[in-house]
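Practice problem. Given the sequence and the SMILES for NAP, write out the predicted structure.
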Amino acid sequence: MNAVLITGGTGKTGGALTGLLRERGVPVRVASRTPAAGDPDAVRFDWADPATHAAALRGTDRVYLVPPVSTLDPLPLVEPFLAAADRLGVRRVVLLASALVFPGSDGALELAERVRARPGGVVLRASGFMQNFLAPHPMGERILRHGEIRTASGTGRVGWIDARDIAAAAAAVLTAPEDAPHGRTDGRSGERTDDRSDHLLTGPAALSYRDAAEILTRHTGRTVRVVPVEPGELAATYRAAGLPDVFAASLAAVDANLRAGRDDLVSTAVLDLTGRPPRTFAEFLRDHTAR
Ligand SMILES: NC(=O)c1ccc[n+]([C@@H]2O[C@H](COP(=O)([O-])OP(=O)(O)OC[C@H]3O[C@@H](n4cnc5c(N)ncnc54)[C@H](OP(=O)(O)O)[C@@H]3O)[C@@H](O)[C@H]2O)c1
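Answer key:
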């Protein structure tokens, strides 16, 4: 059996996906810039170094694609990779994209369009990660150090999703039979429940930051408060946390969309694809109490 190449293989979704595919006996290749010395499946892969692409792809026929992080235009780095994937006979590419619209990220939208247009291409548009509430994400760091969440999103809500549920959805799509590449087959009726090449992945409920802070306070016993700020101030916070200027500004501008209710979305895709409901925010917190 050919392997699945997992880019971002040591990250939040890639790491969980690696575990799920191994449990199912699917061979994996775990790609990152810093391959673990003791892992025989680990392979050095750097988006910025095309010489590493073909070597990572060889012997694989499916790819989980986590685009280069902290950039609004991943296309220049991902295009040569997709060309190499075509040459080497990759049949399925599953892209991790964002459901939240980042102002100025036309390149990311174009990448999603290209993956959707490929035979066997699937785009997973993930909502905000629950893991953002944990360090080392800048928001998680701030909660840990100052007990506060700074946001310009007002009462806008997000369908927060646990990264482990994104991994579960990706595992389902990557291991679906060839003739049903985009969805789960319903065990009872034999009908496909979803045959699109695009899935909006969310948690079970949309929560504002204020809702999330209340749940955090209840579960940790430590008060977490929400501090309303302007987008400019938020961008400065992200810059101070080390994000590149343009990316920090775009990330802060996402809050304006949230405020307008544009990302107040909840889907059934995790349940449809995996047969299990996505984790609630309270379940996520219970699993990460120590952090
Ligand atoms: N956070 C959110 O709310 C949210 C919502 C929707 C979508 N997303 C998307 O999720 C993606 C991040 O996924 P994740 O959270 O699973 O990953 P992650 O935990 O941020 O980890 C990043 C992974 O990519 C690897 N990596 C970083 N730079 C690389 C490079 N230049 N070349 C090759 N590999 C590199 C890292 O390993 P090394 O550092 O060892 O290379 C690591 O395995 C981003 O594209 C983001 O836009 C995030």
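Check your answer against the key. The pocket of NAP is lined by residues 8-14, 32-34, 45-48, 66-69, 96, 98, 126, 128-129, 132, 163 (CB under 6 Å).
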